[in-house]
């Protein structure tokens, strides 16, 4: 099973790590407050103390220009239900203009799942948010009850990044 490792630091420092490990699948991202380096691999990471995830669903290759991370805290008891919902997802996002990739990341060292989508640009993500496909993908199934705090211990939050172009 593929794994995703994420480490944070300054963009310059992370670029140096990426430059040294050119044969690895890495993507450098810059946000408003930080920079992160993603490392996707079947093996171990070169990072010292990364956040560790298993990739439980994936489509597309890492790339694009704009990345959205939906960070969703999930209790241990809620993990099976949460993962089941993603295994049943409609996969409509994959047909959207400007879509590059998606990764559903199961946390190995904390309780926060990450749903990472990669886009050709911010405008493509915003078009997806306004689309019928987005509404369908995010509608609550009628037979599901409203999730309880036993599944989601804290509110989810979104982080966005720009992909640092290859040099």
List the helices and strands and how they pair.
Elements (H helix, E strand, L loop, with lengths): L2 E7 L1 H10 L4 E6 L4 E7 L9 E10 L5 E8 L5 H9 L11 E9 L4 E8 L2 H8 L2 H7 L18 E7 L4
Antiparallel strand pairs: 1-3, 1-4, 2-3, 2-8, 4-6, 5-7, 5-8, 6-7
Describe the structure.
- With 167 residues, the protein is an alpha+beta fold.
- 20% of the residues lie in helices and 37% in strands.
- The protein has 4 helices and 8 strands.
- Strands 1-3-2-8-5-7-6-4 form an 8-stranded antiparallel β-barrel.
- A hairpin with a 4-residue loop joins strand 6 (99-107) and strand 7 (112-119).
- The two termini are 30 Å apart.
Strand content: 35-45%
Helical content class: 10-25%
> What would you call the structural class?
alpha+beta
Low-confidence stretches: 141-145
Biggest sheet strand order reads 1-3-2-8-5-7-6-4
- Mean pLDDT across all amino acids: 91
Termini distance?
Answer: 30 Å
- Note the total helix count: 4
Radius of gyration: 16 Å
- Report the major sheet: 8 strands, antiparallel, barrel
Counting DSSP E segments of at least 2 residues, the number of strands comes to 8
N-to-C series of helices and strands: EHEEEEHEEHHE
What general outline do the C-alpha atoms trace?
globular
């Amino acid at each position: 099973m593929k794994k995703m490792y994420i480490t944070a630091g300054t963009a310059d420092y992370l670029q140096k790590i990426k430059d040294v490990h050119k044969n690895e699948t890495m993507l450098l991202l810059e946000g408003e407050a930080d920079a992160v380096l993603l490392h996707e691999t079947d093996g171990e990471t070169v990072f010292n103390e990364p956040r560790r995830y298993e990739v439980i669903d994936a489509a597309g290759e890492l790339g694009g220009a704009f990345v959205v991370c939906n960070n969703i805290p999930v209790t241990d008891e809620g993990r099976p239900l949460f993962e089941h919902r993603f295994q049943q997802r409609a996969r409509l996002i994959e047909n959207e203009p400007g879509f590059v990739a998606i990764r559903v990341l199961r946390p190995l060292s904390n309780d926060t799942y990450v749903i990472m989508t990669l886009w050709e640009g911010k405008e493509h993500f915003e078009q997806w948010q306004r689309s019928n496909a987005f509404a369908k993908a995010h509608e609550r199934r009628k037979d599901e009850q409203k999730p309880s705090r036993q599944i989601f211990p804290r509110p989810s939050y979104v982080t966005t990044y720009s992909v640092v172009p290859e040099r």
